[in-house]
Amino acid sequence: MNRRAAVQRISLLMGGVALSGPVVSGILGEKTHFGDSVYATPQQEKLLAELADVIIPTTDTPGAKAAGAEQFIIRVMRDCHPMDEQKAFYASLDQFDKDSKAAYGKNFVALGNDQKVAMVKKLIETDKDFFKRMKNYTAVGYFTSEIGATQALEYLETPGRLEACIPLKPGQKAWALG
Amino acid sequence: MANLNLKATKENTYDAIIIGSGVTGGWAAKELTEKGLKVIMLERGQKFDHVTDYENATKPPWEFRYNGKLTNEQKASHPKLSRDYPYNEMTEDYWMDDSDSPYKEVKRFDWFRPNIVGGKSILWGRQSYRLSDIDFEANAKEGIAIDWPIRYKDIAPWYSYVEKHVGISGERLGLPQLPDSDFLAPMEMFCVEKEVRKRIEKNFPGRNMTIGRVANLSEAKKEQLGIGRAPCQYRAKCNLGCPYGAYFSTQSCTLPPAAKTGLLTLRPDSVVTNLIYDENSKRATGVRVVDSVSMDVRVYNAKIIFVCASAMASAAVLLNSTSNRFPNGLGNDSEQLGHNLMDHHFRTGAGGQWEGDLDKYYYGRRNNGIYIPRYRNIGNDKRDYLRGFGYQGGGRRGNWMHNVAELSFGAEYKKEATEPGGWSMGLGGFGETLPYYENKMYLDPKDTDKWGMPLVVFDAEYKENEHKMRVDMQNDAAEMLEAAGVKNVRINKGESYMGMAIHEMGTARMGRDPKTSVLNANNQVHDVPNVFVTDGACMVSASCVNPSLTYMALTARAADFAVSELKKKNI
Predict the structure, then answer these.
(1) Is A110 an 8 Å CB contact of chain B?
(2) pLDDT confidence of residue B398
């Protein structure tokens, strides 16, 4: 069933009430799950949020955790990747936490900031593919979130005109769209 | 009972039936209703209202769940559509489900079939170019296939006619191989493109680079403002439907004037399975429709029928319209129906980095690139293949993804990602494919879809001429970019399968001789004079330019002819 048919069906169930986009997305959220998937545990979710926040920390603008980037990562891994890739991803994540424990006697989420940074540096050496995937989805999740797009970048929904060859303004942030 | 049937027949009777509501169906609706005909336009897709149904066009990125990425479910339910980018999270509802409407492939064919009113006029790339006499004469000069029954002078006034209504933005060049349209102001090039243009034109005399000619309103004139269209807002979400009506679609451009006449009935959810032929009158009397939702079967009758279902679907409907007189499909005495299938071959070229202009940026998202008109096998240039190619491409400045592949992280990485990246410049060829009789689609003898329509089988491929051309498409692109000062130029040898360019055409070609063609010079089916096919099926050769503008002009021309024949009582 495509989304529109699903929306029509839901709308009928709800007595034809018009639903907003996000509400519909929420209702349809379960539908997009397909087949076997790895569901992140609450601990894994927290770990992903902390790791993402080291990759994109809060600076003069909020970071990945504030933007909820881990929700994007979990969703894309669960719904868009084949099972073997999901398993490999979470195995790497668990290994990363074990390595933290081995190095500092604590789970990653409980480490101090310098220790977290040291662990991510080590991760790049021990599991580059996992780091790259993690970084990629952190970036996409963050820069397409409302916080990332509108605070870290310059967000302009409707430019209204085109100027294709103009000087870069001092301090100009990259466009969030396009 | 007899009376009831008579009444039903009368209610289902129109002056004209149009099959399809896309680029050509919309034009047929506008022209025929404005000439006073009572018209029904049958669309197999679902209702898709102007503005209010463009829900995804106004959503911010955070309201999408996967940033456009396909889910496992989508890949499983759309095994064919999910092979390429046009089907994605944002456009999912716009396309037909593979599972509802399967097709078969002797050779791979990527068939993109919209499931909405407006069809591909909503989803198209909007690049708009005129064919030239170099195109119209090529088959005859080279002894390939058959000659076009028309020349540039026959279609030129119709190009002007449709361009004035549509609004084509572009730059006049005065080239014989790419005649100028009646243009709106051209869109501006990026600084890098301006410089690359200068250097290509200096280093390679006879080659030109211009801004893409595009059916977006760089400015809105009276013709456009009068039907509720506004100028382009540079949001670059065109293919989701434009809430400003700033690019050509059926909804923005041809439906409003047709609706205004009060003579148009638009019926979505209507799968036309076949035309009905009457041996006594030697005319098609109507079409058979299956309602895609209720599965009810209806018959609509009319004096004339415009088949505008898109090239493959139009041929399929005609092939499925069998009778004693036409056992192999309506108007198929020539046995050409479904044959001579063409598309443009593409996805190959080159790209690289532009080290300058770090102090330059842009405002607004230009959903258009640059264009390099064909220069191969023109004038004194002779290659080891026939015909040629044009390039589409352009410059771009890296966004927040520009440093994502690096191993950096933390505050410094974040700062860098929020600043514009470097510039790059790329060129991708669009090459002409020759018409080969053996490149074909046909109907499966036994399997049908859920509406009873026989499945289409594709058996078409690119051949030696196209493969030789692709070598030039790669090397020329790299050579021009290098000469222009682009660094780290890399050749891109992407795969191109039939259908992927979504410029499929040629399956009911025009011609002078009924023995070798399906349609005459006015897009009229030989021997069934009240049936017209004006979509890409009519093409005799492919040219290398994007074809939709030509379909529009041919449709307006055929509609004019059809109504004048109707008035003369010839049909």
Answers:
(1) no
(2) 97
Nearest by Cα to B78 from B102, B56, B45: B102
Pick among A12, A24, A53, A80 to test the B interface (most B CBs inside 10 A): A80
Given A55, A149, A165, which is nearest B360 (Cβ)? A165
Q: Find out whether B216 and B169 touch, Cβ atoms under 8 Å.
A: yes
pLDDT at residue B329 above 80? yes
pLDDT for the residue numbered B5: 59
List CB contacts (< 8 A) between B238 and chain A.
none
Q: In what side-by-side order are the strands of the sheet with B454-459?
A: B104-105, B454-459, B440-448
The secondary structure of residue B342, as a DSSP letter, is B
DSSP 3-state of B116: strand
Nearest to residue B528, comparing CAs of B326, B282, B279?
Answer: B282
Asked if residue B552 lies in contact with residue B27, where contact means CB atoms within 8 angstroms, the answer is: yes
Q: What angle do CA B534, B143, B542 make, to 5 degrees?
A: 35
Gap between the Cα atoms of B461 and A138, Å rounded: 41
Residue B204 is which amino acid? F
- Whether the CB of A140 is below 8 Å from some CB of chain B: the reply is yes
pLDDT in tens, B136-161: 999 999 999 999 999 999 999 999 99
Which of A25, A55, A176 faces B409 most closely, judged by CB atoms? A55
Residue B418 touches partner A, C-beta closer than 8 Å: yes
- The 10s digit of each residue's pLDDT in B218-245 is 999 999 999 999 999 999 999 999 999 9
Percent of all residues in chain B with a pLDDT value above 70, rounded to a whole number: 99
Alpha carbon of residue A37 to chain centroid = 17
Average pLDDT over residues B385-404: 97
For chain B, the average pLDDT equals: 97
What is d(CA B483, CA A106) in angstroms, rounded to the nearest whole number? 58
pLDDT at B7: 64
Q: Are B381 and B252 in contact (CB under 8 A)?
A: no
User: What average pLDDT does this structure show over B367-393?
Assistant: 98
Side-chain-side CA neighbours of residue B324 (13 Å): 4
Q: What angle do CA A51, A56, A62 make, to 5 degrees?
A: 115
Q: Each residue of B166-212: pLDDT tens digit?
A: 999 999 999 999 999 999 999 999 999 999 999 999 999 999 999 99
Task: State the count of interchain CB pairs (< 8 A) between A and B.
Answer: 177
| CA quadruple B80, B85, B89, B94: dihedral, nearest 10 | -70
Quickly tell me which residue has 């009905």 as its tokens.
B276
B412 in reach of chain A (CB within 8 A): no
Number of C-alpha atoms within 13 angstroms, CB side, residue A106?
A: 10
Q: Could you read off the pLDDT of B98-116 as tens digits, one per residue?
A: 888 899 999 999 999 999 9
Is B490's Cβ below 8 Å from some Cβ in A?
no
**Do A160 and B62 count as a contact with CB atoms less than 8 A apart?**
no
Query: In this complex, is the C-beta atom of A118 within 8 Å of any C-beta atom belonging to chain B?
Result: no
pLDDT in tens, B69-91: 999 999 998 999 999 999 999 99
CB-CB under 8 Å, B71 with A80: yes
Q: How far is B296 from chain A (nearest CA, A)?
A: 19
Kindly list the residues from chain A whose CB atom is less than 8 angstroms away from the CB atom of residue B73. 31-35, 79
Tell me whether A172 touches chain B (CB under 8 Å).
yes
- Give the mean model confidence (pLDDT) for residues B47-59: 97
Q: Residue B532: name the closest of B40, B16, B22 by CA.
A: B16
User: For residue B345, which of B426, B238, B460 has the smallest C-alpha distance?
Assistant: B460
| Residue A133 DSSP SS3 | helix
Q: List Cα–Cα distances, A152 to B92, B279, B404, in angstroms.
A: 30, 71, 15
CB proximity B410 to A under 8 Å: yes
Rounded CA-CA distance B61/B401 in Å is: 15
Q: Tell me what the mean pLDDT of segment A112-119 comes to.
A: 98
